């Protein structure tokens, strides 16, 4: 996809972080921008920014973990603009801790946002794109955590590996029917986003239970502390959007923004092929 002017972009998780940056880039490229987020105040802020940049904009409060809300997002997009050309399935959250300590509610929340959020976006928008039969592009936000694994981030790694596999398999299926839809999976490392504050986005059904021992555990507190540290010391976010749009223009499937992780990703694959077992000591060398 190389032509952006007057095309229609849909962005979930658009209230902050990558979603806000993608919305600004779309506006700069004179696209019509549909923005969605679970937080109404954040969404209004993004709407104000892109409107001031001159973009025709539609803002819809959306919980991507609920299919009917994503379907409504798709329907409203077509009602307003008549088509969709670029889709960012971008909404996501993070939780930390070992599997034996994580409450099931945490799994439900992160799976609903990071995995089902993408599934819902693909199910709602791909039929529209197929019917249009025009060049379109879909970017699913995953993470470098979908290409490697570490300790005590089991839920996040699980969802991000699922996001990568979901995107790869869907891409194969679209190729097999000679679709004009291209896909990318966005796999950044640590970036200065608002991801470490994602607890504020929890829907009521996933609210923290103060009686659950996990929330007083060392693993939970360490995860919160580490999250703040790595995000605050990550790559500046304003350098990301140009890289992503360049990848869209070049129809690049894997979008990796942190080359320092390439050796670790390569070692993981090499160890598999050589029959080596995962070894936690690699994180302490």
UniProtKB/TrEMBL annotation:
Q: Which UniProt keywords apply?
A: Oxidoreductase
- Give GO MF terms, alphabetically: oxidoreductase activity, acting on the CH-OH group of donors, NAD or NADP as acceptor
Residue intervals passing through the bilayer: none
Pfam families hit by this protein? adh_short
The family database entries (SUPFAM superfamilies) matched by this protein are listed as: NAD(P)-binding Rossmann-fold domains
Family membership noted in the UniProt record: Belongs to the short-chain dehydrogenases/reductases (SDR) family.
- The protein's name: SDR family NAD(P)-dependent oxidoreductase
Instruction: Please tell me the species this chain comes from.
Output: Anaeromonas frigoriresistens
């Amino acid at each position: 996809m190389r032509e952006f002017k007057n095309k229609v972009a849909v962005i979930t998780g658009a209230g902050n972080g990558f979603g806000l940056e993608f919305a600004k880039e779309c506006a700069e490229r004179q696209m019509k921008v549909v923005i969605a987020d679970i937080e109404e105040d954040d969404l209004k802020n993004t709407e104000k920014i892109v409107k001031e940049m001159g973009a025709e904009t539609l803002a819809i409060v959306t919980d991507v973990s609920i299919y009917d809300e994503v379907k409504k997002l798709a329907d409203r997009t077509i009602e307003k603009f008549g088509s969709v050309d670029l889709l960012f399935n971008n909404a996501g959250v993070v939780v930390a801790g070992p599997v034996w300590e994580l409450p099931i509610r945490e799994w439900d929340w992160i799976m609903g946002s990071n995995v089902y959020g993408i599934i819902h976006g693909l199910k709602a928008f791909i039929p529209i794109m197929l019917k249009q039969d025009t060049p379109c592009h879909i970017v699913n936000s995953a993470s470098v955590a979908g290409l490697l694994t570490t300790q005590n981030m089991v839920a996040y790694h699980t969802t991000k590996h699922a996001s990568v596999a979901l995107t790869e398999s869907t891409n194969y299926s679209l190729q097999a029917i000679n679709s004009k839809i291209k896909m990318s999976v966005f796999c950044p490392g640590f970036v200065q986003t608002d991801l470490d504050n994602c607890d504020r986005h929890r829907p009521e059904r996933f609210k923290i239970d103060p009686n659950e021992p996990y929330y007083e555990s060392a693993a939970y507190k360490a995860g919160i502390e580490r999250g703040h540290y790595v995000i605050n010391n990550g790559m500046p976010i304003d350098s990301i959007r140009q890289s992503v749009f360049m990848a869209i223009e070049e129809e690049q499937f894997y979008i990796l923004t942190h080359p320092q992780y390439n050796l670790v990703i390569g070692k993981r694959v090499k160890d598999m092929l050589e029959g080596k077992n995962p070894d936690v000591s690699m994180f302490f060398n």
